[in-house]
Structure formats: C-alpha cells, structure tokens
## 1
Amino acid sequence: MLKRLCKRMFGKSIWVYHCNTGACNGCDIEILNILTPFYDVERFGIKLVASPRHADAMLISGAVTRPTLPLVKRAYEAIPNPKLVFAIGSCATGGGAWFDTYNVTGGADKVLPVNYYIPGCPPRPEAILYGVALALGMVDKQAAPVELKQMEFPIDMYERNEAWEKRNVIYELLK
Amino acid sequence: MWLTSKIKQLLMVMKPGVVTLNYPAERPPVPKNLRGQPVWDHQKCIGCGGCSDHCPSRCILTRDVCQELRVMLYDGSRCTYCGRCADICPEGAITMSNSFEIACDDKDDITTRLELFMMTCQRCGRCYEMEKSNAIDRINLKGFRYDNLEQRALVRTTSETFSPELLKESDNYKRPSDKE
C-alpha cells in the first residue's frame, strides 16, 4: 500500500546529481539559478543531492577533460539504474570551442550515453527548465533539423544554353 | 519567542506573495537582445565561407562537393551563440533569432544544412577576399574546402582549384588521437 503510494507520489520526482567536468562555472551558476524561488524547480520534485548513490539523474556541465574522465565514469557507475544523463551547455553537448584540443574528450556523449542535450553558452535557466520538462513529458520538442537548398540554375549554364539555342536559330534559318 | 519569530517569518513571506514563474505553462516574453539559435537565409547567402572562418568553435563546416555545389553545415551542438557569424556576414544572411528552447534528445535536431550553387570568379576562382582574416587563416582557408560532414570535423586543407582526390581523402578523415 505504502509502496504503491510512494511510487505514485515520487514516480516523477527526479533527484539530481550535478557533475562539473571541467566547465567554466557558467553553466553551474545557471543550474543553481533554477533552484532559486523564482525558477523553483522543486515544484517538479527535483532536488539536488550531493552523492551519486542517491541520484536518479546526472547533470554534466563542461567538456569532459582528461583528469576528470575516470571520475565521471565512476560517478556514472555509482548511480543506480535506471538513470538519466543531461548534458548542459555547449561544452557538454558537443565540446564547445575545445572540441579538438588535446586534453578534452570533446563532449559528454563520447564518454557516457547521454539522454538529453541542452545547448547554450550558458543555457538560460528557462532552457534548462524546458529540457527537464521535455524529459518529464510536459512539453513537446521544438527543435528539428533544417535543410535549405538554393533552387536556381547557375547563371553561366543558363546563358550557355541560351547562346547555343540562338546560334541554332541562325543555322536553321540558313538551311 | 520561538513562535513570534516564526510569525514574523510568515509575515515577511506574505509580503512579496508568489514570485515563482510558472514556466512551462506560461512563457514570459524573451528579451530582444538575446542571442539564440542562428537562422540562415539561403536566398541571400553567397557561400563565401566567412562565417566558418570566424566561428570560434568551428561549428560551421564548408565542403565543396564539386565545382558548382558547396554544402555548408551548421552543427548547433557545439555553437557558443557568440554571434560572430552574423557580424561577419557581408550579405546579412545570418540572423540571431531569440529561440532558446532547443533542448533535444538527438544532436542532429539542431543542425542546419545549406546547399549552395557557386559561380566561379574569372580572376581568382573564388568570390571572397580574405583581408579581414589573420595570416594563418589566409594560408589555410582559401579556395576550395573539404571539411568532413559525417565526423563533424574541420579539415585544414584547401586547394586553389577543385581536386576530387582531396575530396576522397577527406571522406575517411579521422580525428588524431593517442589511444591507438
């Protein structure tokens, strides 16, 4: 009875472990910002916990640097299953400006299986809230891949064909 | 004493009322000077590649498929939203929109792919002068480019005339690593 009640009450309340993997603290400040009374994230049942063993989800901020790489893996293994991983900021999603450098693995998805990406440098607190709401199924996904094509002829090709036709007109008149 | 302090606290809390933003239900207006996701106008773009030269995170990739077709790919996953591409664009084809709700579960959702017809200049073969770039850029990134779009990697080799060999080489480009 109590177990079922607990499941119903706390089924969607995610406890979150925040893991800084070499970020510049910009994203960390925004994560702390969503815990303030203005963007009160605890109304979704989300709570920041200190130990990964208590957590359900993991927030990664920062491109995973070489010294933090084994520690991140250990922290990820310490989280009990099932677990969610959020990559917050453009460093964690794709590596940021350091995607190529020698002591950076270039994004959290090269180390761990990442579930949700929240790009931005740093992301707005609303953007982080939106990502969390997306994970909870409260809003729809707005981002979609865009493909654009120039649907016009290359002008020199067009002119070449036109000149060829004009020349043919003269030859046909001469016939 | 204990009770009076609690009552005082309650009164203090009562004064401002509810301050919490009910975010996913109600969306407040976005500030106008926010730099969100960049938006391309493919009718204005001339394909000069200035944005990909000046991108600090090298997230705009340029690949010449043949002499007349250039593919430009914007990889939004590592974009830092600095707005330098919009500043440098000579035609004003890039605008920084104020959409920030771009959280996704797949990295390909935040990419933009442009396919551009290129016409060759009679004098130099390209249309963009590289005066504003620095010396290293002038050596490396002039003429035809062969970035790898599958690996999302910037390949620092260019050629003055289009060469199919370099295009084929850049297809199996791998990021240099010390693990092997």
## 2
Amino acid sequence: MISPIHILTIGLGGAFALGFVPKKAKDAAAVLMLAAIALMGVLTGSWLIGLINGESAQQIFTAGFKPPFSINLLMGLNESVLTTAVNFIGLLGGIYLYRNLKEAGNHAVMVFLIFIMGLNVVIMTRDIFNLFVFLEIVSIATAGLVILTESGKSIQAGFKYMLATGIISGVLLLGIIFAYYYSGTLNIDGLTAANIGALKGGSVALLLIMVSIILELKSFPANGWGLDIYEGSNAGIGAMLSAATATAMYFVLSKLLEMAGSEWNYWVALIGAVSFVGSNVLALKQRIAKRLLGYSSIGQIGLLMIILGFKDVLGDNTPYVAFGILFSHYFAKAGLFWLAGIVKQNDIANWAVIRKKPYFLFLMGTFIFALIGFPPFPSFFAKWELVMELVNTGNLPWVVAILFGSMMEAVYLFRWFGYAIKGENENIEDFKIEWNKILPVGIVAIALYVTGYFTSQHTDAGAAINWIPLFFVAAIFILDFLPVFIKNTIAIIGMAFYFYTIYPDLDNLRLVFEAIFMIGGILTLIAGYAYKGTRPGFYPVALLMYAGLTTIIEAQNTLQFFFGWELMTAGSYFLIIRGKRSMPHGLSYMLFSVGGAYALLMGLGMAFAGQGSYDMSIINSISYIPYWAYGLLIVGFLTKTAALGLHIWLPGAHGEAESDVSPMVSAILLKAGVFGIVLTLIGMGGENNAYPWLPYALGWLGAITAFSGNLMAVFQEDAKRLLAYSSIGQLGYIVLGFAMMSHLGWLGGFSYVVNHFLYKAVLFLTIGAVVLRVKTHNMYEMGGLIKRMPLAFTAVMIGIIALSGVPPLSGFAGKWLFYNAILEKGWYLQGAIMFFSGGIAFMYLWRLIHTIFLGQLKDNHRNVKEISIWFLIPIYTLLAGIMVYSVKPQWVLQPLGDIVAQWFPDGQLTWDGGTAFTKYGHWAGTAVAVTIIAAFLVVTALLMISTRKAHKVKQFDITYSGERPERPETTHVAYNVFEGLYQAMWVATIPLVEKWWNKVSDFLHDTAGIVRRIYSGNGQSYVIHIVLFIIVTYFVIIGG
Amino acid sequence: MEYITITTGFLIILAGLWAIMTRKNLIRIIIGFSLFDTGIHIVMVSMAFVKGGVAPILDKKELLTDTAHKIVDPVPQALVLTAIVIGLGVTALMLAYAMRLHQEKKSLDIESFKDLKW
Amino acid sequence: MTIAKLGYTLLGLFIVWNWGFLMGAIFRKIGARVSGRIGIPFYQPWINFFKSVGVRTTITHGVMYYLGPVFRLTGGIGLLFFMPLIYTGDPNGMWTNFSFEGDLILILYFQLFGMLGMAMGAGEGGHPYSAMGIARGLAQHAAVELPLTLAILSIAIQYDTFSMYKIVEAQQGGFQNWVLFTNPFAAGAIILAMLGAMGHSPFNLVKAPNEILIGPATEYEGTYLGFMQSAGSILHVMEAVLFMNLVFGGATSWPELIVKTFLIYFWSVFVGMVFPRYKIEQSITWFFKVPLVLGVLAIIVFSF
C-alpha cells in the first residue's frame, strides 16, 4: 500500500512539473494535471479497497517526529472514502473544465491541482495547525479558481470570498493558538485526550475553532459571501465548491466535533437546523439558477450538520445516514452545477431550453429528485433512517424542522424543474454540447442510481425492496425510441404478466386494490394505441407510477411502502405535467404530495418508535403518541385523495392532463390514498378503536369534501375540470364511508371504490377521447355530438347514470349502503350533506351530457369522427363491468363483504338469493334491474309502434323567439347555465382553501424577500455578519 | 511587561477589524487585514513566551535539563512563520483582486461592487 | 311473483293513471274558477291524451329525443311498481306491488330515473327552453332534496327502518299515530318540500306554463307528449302517495288513497293559487330556510 503522504508528492510534484511544461503545450499541461489527479484517486481508491477488505488504518508522522513537532495524517476508512470522492469529482471536474483550464494556462492548471491536493490533506490531517495551513491553501486556490472565467461578477465574488475567509481563518488561527496554549498539543487526538473543552480557557479556544469551521461551511445567516461565490464563479468551480470543498469541510467538522465533545453536538445540530430551514426559505424568492443551487447547497450542509449533531442518537447508523445525504448532494449538486454551465441560462424560467435535448431533462430530473430525497436515490434511504431514528428518540421538533426545510427545498427545486419541463422555450437559443462537459454529468447521474441501489441493500428493510418493476421501467426508458405500438404492447404484456405472477400472494383486500391498479392500468394503456409516433417519455413515467402502486400493495415493511409511495408520486407527477398548461398544477400536485409524504414519514416514524420494527404490522399497534401518529398518516393519505383543504392541486392536474392520463390519475391513482386510509383505519383497530375523534373528524371532512367537490363541479365550463371536481366529491363519499368504521360503511366505501374506478375511468376516457377529436375542453364549444359519436354518447350516458346512483345501475348500491350505514352509525347530518351532494351531482352530470352531446351541433364539428376505437375498447370493457355489477350486485358485494367482515364482523348484509337485507331495509338488485328493464322495453315498444312514421327533422327545425335559429352558438344553452343556483349558493363557492394556501405561500415568499436583503452584496456587511455570528454564538454557547 | 505584547496584539487585531468593517476604500480594507494578521501573529508569539526564557536554541548545557521552563516554546514561533507566509500570500492576492476591481469599475469604493446580492 | 300480483299491479297502474288525469282536470278547473273562468271539462286530459297519441304525423330529433318520454314513463311506472299503494296488513299483499324488491331508498332514487332520462331526451331537441327548464329543474330539485332527505332520515330513525311498508304499518291505528303528529318537524319539512317536488306555483319556473309549455317538454308532440302526459299523471299521484305513506298514515283502501292524495295534491295547488312564481334562486333559498331548519330539528329531536 502506497503511503498517503504521496498524495502530497503527486500534487506538489505535479505542480512543479507543470512549471516545466512549455506554455504553448496547453493540452499537455491539462492532461498532466488530470493524470496527477487520477493518480491521487488511484492511491486513495486502493486504500479504500484495502480498508474495506480489512486492512488497518494508517497514521503517518512526517519527519519521524511525534506531534506537535510533526504533521500527522490519518488514512482510515472514512478518510479513504472521502478522499476518493474528492479525487473522483476532481477528475470529473477537471475533465469538465478541460477547455477553460487549458485556455487559462499552466498556472490555472496548477492551482486546480493544488486545490484538489489541499482538500485531500484537509480530510486526512490530524493536526489543527496543519489543517489551518491547508485550509488556507484551499482558500487561496479557490480565490484563484473563482476568476478562472473572468467576469466582473466573479472578481467581486472572489474578493468578498477573500474578505470572509480571511476573517474566518484569522479566528481559526487564534483558536488554534489558544488551544495549544492551554493543552500543549496541536494534534486532534491529543486535544481530544486533553478534553480541551473542559480546560480553563479551553472552551474559548474550542469555540473559536468550531465557529470558524462552521462558518467555513457557510452557515446561515453569515453566508452571503458563499452565495456570491456560487453565483459568480464558473459553474465548474461551483460544482467543485459544492461537491468537493463542502464534503471535505464537513468531514473536518466531524473530526473536530469528536474533539469538542458531546456538548457541542447540540449546538452543531441547532446551527445546522437554522441553516437548513433559513437557507431553504430564503431560496424561495431566488430565480438565478446558480445562486439557487448555492442556497440549496448551504441548506444541505445544514442538514448534514444536524445529522452530525445527532451522531450519538444515530449511533452506528451515523455514517450510513450522513453518507447517504452527503453523496446524494455530492453527485446531484455537482451535476446540477455542471448542467448550469452547459445550459448557460441564469434565469430559471429560461431553463425551458433544456428540453430541446430531452436527455438533459432526464439528467436534471435525476439530480433534483435525488436532492429532494426521492427513491431510488441514497438520500431517500438516509432521510428515512434519519427521521425514523429521530422520531424514535422523541426529537420531534427536529424532525419537523427537517421536513419543513425539505419542503421548502422541494418548492423551489420543483418550480425550477417545472420551468424546465413546461416553460416557454421557443425564443431561447439552444445550447451547445461539448463532450467533455456531458461525460461528467452522465457519470454522476449513473452513480446516483448505482449508489442508490447499494444504499438500499445496506438495511434489511431496504434489501426487501422488489426492484423488478423499477428495472422494467428502466428497460422501457431505454427503449423509448421505439414507436408507441411496440412500447404499449410491451407495457401491457409486462403489467399483465406481473399481475399474473403476484396475485396469488395477495390477501383479498390487497387484491381488490391491485386489481384496480393493474387491470385499470392495462385498460387505460390500451387507449394509448390511439397515439401516433413515439410519444417520448410517456411509457417510462406511466410505468413508474404503476411500479409505485404495485410496490405499495406488495409492501411487507413500511420502508417498502414509502418507497412505492414516492415512486408513485414521482411517476404521477411526470404524467400530470405532460399535459398542456399543466406547469402550475404539476407543481402544486408535487408540493402537496411531498407534504403528504412527509406527514406519512413522521407517522411511520411514530409507528416505528417503541416497536423497533419496520414490518407493516406495526401500524396495527402504534404505541407512541398514537393519536398523532394515526392523524399524520391519515393527513398524508388525504393529500392523495384530495380531501377538502388538500385538494387544490387536483382540478388543474387532472383537468389539464392528457386524455388517457386523466383516467389513470383519477380513476386509479386516487385509490392509492384510499388504500392508505384503509390500512390506517384497520391499524387503529376497527370498530372499537381507541381514537374515536379521528374517524369522526374524517367523516365530517369527507361529507364536506363531497359537498364542495360536487358544487364546484357544477360551475365548471371545462369538461375535464368538471370531472376532476367530481372526483374530489366522490372521494369525499369514500372517505366518509370508511370513516364510519362499521361493516356497512366500509362496504359502502368499497362499493364506491370499485364504482368510482369503473365510471370515472369510462367518463374520463370518453371525454378525453372527445377532446382529442374536437380540440377543446370547453363544453360550451361543443354540443350535439350525439349525432357524430353515438358510441361515446352511450358510454357517457351509462357512466353518468351509474355515477348518479339512480337504479338500476351500480351506483345505487353505494347509495343504498350509505343510507343504511348512516342510519346505523347515527351520523345523520353528515349523511344528509352527502345525499344533498348527490342531488347536486345531478346538475353537473346533466351538464356533462347535455352540453357536449345534446343541443346544437357546432359548424366546425360537423365532420368529426366517432372517438378512436382504442378508446372504445377499454370504455366498453369497463361498461360491461358496470353492467355486470348492476345486474348482479351480489357478485361484487358478497366478496367485498367477506373482506370487510375480517375487521367488522357485526352488521353484515344478509343475502337471500339476489336480495340483500340490512336490519333497516332490503334491496333486490337483480329483480329491480329486471323490472325496470322490462318496463323500459315495453314502453319503448309502445312508442316505437306509435311513432314508426315519425318524420326525422334537421338540426334547426325548431322555433325559438319567433324565428327558426340558424346559428348553433346562439341556440345552444351551454354557458353558465346554473346561474340561478350560483346566485343562491355563491357563498359556498368562495375558494377559501385556495386563498388560505395562497396566503401561506405569499407569507413565506414575502418573508424570504425581506430577510434575504441582509445579503446586501457589500463585502463589509458579510464581514460584519461573520463577526456578529461569532459574538452571538459566544454568548449563547459560553454564556455572558 | 509580559501582558503588554499580548494586549498590543489584541488591540491591533481590533484595529484591523475596525478598518475592515468600516473603511470603504479597498486598499484600506486590505491594510486592515494586514493589521488583523499581524495582531494575531503578535498574540501567538506572546502567548508562547515563558518568563525569563531564552530563545529555543539548545546551545548551552544547562538548557538540556528542565528545558521547557527555560526556553520559550518553539512551536508557536514556527507556526507564526507559516502564518506570516500565508498572510503575505493572502494580502498579495487581495491586492491583485483590488487591482482588477479597480480596472473594472474605476473605483476603489467597496460599495460599488454589489452586483451580486440577495 | 305471481301472475296475479302482476295483474293487481297493472290494475293499480291503470287506476292511478286515470286518477291522475281526473285530479289534474279538477285542479285546472279550480284554477280557472279562482281566476274567474269556466275552465275545462273534467274529461279534457283524456281528450288531450287520445288526441296526442292519435296524431298521424310526428317528428323525431333522434334516438335520445325518442327515449326521453320512455325514460319518463318508465320512471313513473317503476315508481308505482316499487311503492306499496295500499296497506292490507300483508307485506306481500295485493296492492304492495313490487315493493319487496326494494325499500324507501330505492323509491327516492328511482324518482330521478325519469327526470334524468327526460333531461337527456329533451336536450336532443336542441330547443333552448328545454335546456333552461332542465337546468332550473335540477337546481330546484337539489334544493328540495336537502330538507326532504333530513326528514326522511328522521322518519327512518323514528321507526328504525327504511321499509316503506313498515313505516306505513307503524302509522296504523288512528291519525294520532301518523308521522304528522308523532314527528311534526319531519312532517313539516316534508310538507314544505313537497311543494317543490310537485312543481306547482310558486315552484313551477321549471315548466313555466303560460299559454304554451316553456320548459323541458317544449319540443314534444304526438305520442311523445301523450306518454309524457301519462307519466305526469302517474308521477303526480305517486308523489302524493309517497308523502301519504311517509307522513299521513298511508291508505288502507282505494277511497282512502283517493281522498288523501287529493288533499295532498290540493295543498300544493292551493299554495300555487295564492303565491306567484318564484325565480329559481329565490326558490332555492326558500328551501334553505324554514324547510331546512325543520329538517335539522327533526334529526336533532330523534338523534338523542
């Protein structure tokens, strides 16, 4: 094994050698530098491999003396990992900056090499004065590199950087000399042994050292200089600062924290939390990409500081958690900075240009999802472990801070990503591709996935994750260039086969939901055959959503469940944002989903607390503040079912989505939330649960959601938004049903789950297909389409009758069960609100069919064709389902009843043939259907006989206002038809919820806008911040 | 007597800080930095001072016994040398920066360089 | 189900159909007299009906237009099928029709069958009046639904059943057992909501009858209109029967049924004679005031 001291040899030797390279041989200089960095990487890498394979760590003393008379370095496992990481990113960064370094000449190349070498030593050193020296080397090198590509901004940033680091290193030096004075050693281990913090005067020395390292990590709010340097310097340098320097400095902090003793843990965590939350809040107002990344970097370091501060709590898991977050940040932030250098757009709105090269969009998405902590990236697993442990030890305020900060980070990162996916990009000049710049970006992106996989394998819960669906998604992603027909077929066969293989392993409850997800998925995918071309990007994300959904169903432990939940969120986000004008809705969907996911995470953490297991069954026996735990779980799931208050994302998201996506996200995806609620309610203990207020509140929430959703649907002019609001209402029924916690309530809930899946899929597919033909969502621009698309009309007619609950179609089953359940439960007022909502539903249902299919056909639709056969196939398959359910309700309700009876054995339906009995009433579904159909046929026959010679009239053969109309627009009563209702009920349509969330958003943004003015841009004020930071920490930590 | 140097050192540090935080001229700020560094260096050597100690050169026999109390600590002196060198480098780089800044805006007022903010 | 049962049911249908016509004629007559006219002969509805189904020329706007009256009439007939008409002490007795197939909830929701079908059928005619009428009708119906639902829930709580038959059974043995007296709040709510359900003035903006019908049925003529007249007559009686069964003790014989439905019907006509027509937003808010309060009171009284 080569001694690590040779890193210095290589670095310094390389730098000297560079001096001999002729000035004109620019390539030679750059190649020599890369070779030197690669050599350092090989050296540290070989140590890494060696240490993993059980070799022992090596302590190096220079010149044969013991400290303090020599510099000593340590090469342990952590050091080898981090130096390898620094050298790796240094090599990639060098490749990325190849041209810039070459242009800048041999000196710049030299500085870059010394910079990387300096970081290596900073990581390895065990001597605080040596640390100071190499920190200064790194600082000076950084100050040099900042002006690698010179501009006014970079020079200013560099000068401010020098001012700030000058003060910080002065303070560090003072701290070091005090420490030496009081302890007589400069060796970190010696200082640890001497327990420097406890010595007389040592606490001040320690404070100065710690604070200066914390300041070097750009802690909020004394970090204006850091932001400036991220913004002002070349993106390639920004990547180095964020990935390499921050990584090294973080390790320095962890080394020194061991020396400082455990009483410092709290302060480090506190400063980290302030940094994490503060930085992420202030970033909300930021629109300059690189500065935004700077804020994010500072935030992430804050999070890492929290982890470090909790190392005693996390115990053996500390490296796992810290490395998980650190490496996600390290790869993702480097990647994003590099992308910023490739895209060359300052304003985040102009990043729309990135999708002119779609694979770059994929890279950007990878990095952003990794930063937020989505699966399958390491940060997901690390954050999971972190939250679980923190909740387990009762550190709830810290968890809240972490999740709040993460939420803010999600806001600005997803806003940025939204611009990239959906922003206007026609007038923005395309960016150029240089291979040396793409290569590093690609490598870090792949590295994120690979490290993610290996991170998951580290824990038992993570190793249980089934990666097959995800690999299938990856395969489809690779095949994305193929035409729709082939991909669609592969997707359908894949899903069908997967469903076939796993369904025997599922219990009945899960089977119901899995069937909705998978069969529904296959049916909606069939509609995809209607699309031409390759439909880039659609199949990977659709399958990602289904992969998530099936993972939720199959989950054996809570980590798997959460993993699937987040995959599903990511997939559905991409699906939703594919629609036109969907940018703001995609963002709000994502934010509510992320917020909901964090509520889930906390809830699952509480479930874990005290039980020490991740098995799914822990939900059934939460003992740690169970009221909160179940409440949080329910709130988390309610974000997906779009309960009132958490619903504002849904209308836009579902309304603007593509024609076959709307049914996926409405009929299918919403059921994931329902599944979660069902699991939670089962966990609470069913009928005689100990938390009566939760279902009670949930019941009211469901009823009010049903009312508001339906009422809002009535006033929509956009057909798909109407259906979207209708979904909100329907999910309100479902929530109310399950909240009743009785056999009938649950059976009613399940009945609605199945029904809503069937008819909402029919309606969304049909309306979506109609929209594809008529090219508008506005109902008043349609009309009379029954003449052009009778099959679509029939489908919608059956769909709305089923939805309305009018017998004999299947919707009545739900209504009947609900009436009985309400009476049994005694929730009369909630029930009355719900049934009133049913009455309101009639209005939008009629509107849907009348305004689109009846009334007057518009001139520009005279030649539209019937909707595509590929839509009709799934639609009529689903209609067949509705019909079977309608005529033979016992075929559906009996098995569902058996499922529900597992938890609610009392009050079951009794069946006598086709007649169902409750203690209140009875209903013979088949007989009713037969009776009505018979009467219907008889009457039809009579009318047909009587009017067999009826004269078929044309469209305008009516008289109105004393004339025969000739323009459909003036005759089709379609716009704002429920004006009377609006005048009576406008109070209930005030969007209070939306206003509330807007207020919250405005408040946060305004706060950010005001507070961030402390970063005045003046280097002196940054110095003042630093000095104040030191003074404040002195008084807070040491005391007056 | 032994406190005079250390007090002076701290006073110089404060003077330097005062210059860095209040002067608007870049050159004055950089001079402030030099003062700040120098103050720290003085503090360093004076802390290593041992009353009655001599320079840490072991050229006399009596110094070989009970050495630590007879000579001043050599380590801080070595450290100070390094620190001075580093301080010099930093000052030089700052001056170079000041030159570039002046080329850019024809001004040495730190208030003129606020293009990056918020 | 025996053939006899079907026979009784169809006989009941026939009686109700005729009674509906007669009742309609009587009230048009009353209306005329109130406003100082002589009015129509009592057999006018039959004349109208036979004239309608007898016309030689009819038009059609399309399939759904065609199906509108079918839905409507099926709705009326079905409502009769699922409703026990006369209480005989036997839950499967001869005038209970097919009510063994479902309970009160089935009736409540099946009421909407004709309405929905009619709404769709009239729409295909493309006449603006149809659409306006339906939009108003649906809005008003939703408003009626709220107090009605509360009242019906209250009655269901009171008797612990949704079975129409059992509700009627429980009210036997004297008028003091009627819901009208045992549950006055629910009865009040129903009596007021009934005005909306019947669709007479002041709640008749849906059809807005003037010289000619301005509403959903505008475009209908011939047999279509005949079917709709029939459906109208059946539905009127059946609405009255529903309220009779719910509030007024049901009927134990045909004469009792005739008298009670007549009085129930008279109530809405009486109100209609006195009060002018509401605009739709006025009628909606009207149902959200006294009827709603009564409905909530009815629930509160019986939920403790």
